[in-house]
Design a protein that fits this description.
Blueprint lengths: L1 H65 L1
Length: 67
């Protein structure tokens, strides 16, 4: 009977350890997902700015060509 109680305690300890590790990994995952979304937004903004600059460059090239 004592060995079953010891085994139960060991299993419960392992479960608690794994559950704590899971929570830690889940928190890190949530953080990484937020960071990834912020980086996606920055890349999207950068791409928009790049398109605007290309359009401005094309407009300037056309104006210079007309001179």
């Amino acid at each position: 009977m004592d060995s079953l109680e010891d085994e139960k305690s060991g299993v419960k300890g392992n479960y608690n350890k794994l559950y704590a590790q899971f929570n830690s990994l889940q928190s890190q995952n949530d953080f990484n997902l937020r960071e990834l979304e912020e980086l996606r937004e920055l890349v999207t903004q950068h791409e928009r700015e790049k398109i605007e600059l290309r359009e401005q460059n094309a407009d300037l090239s056309n104006e210079v060509g007309m001179l």
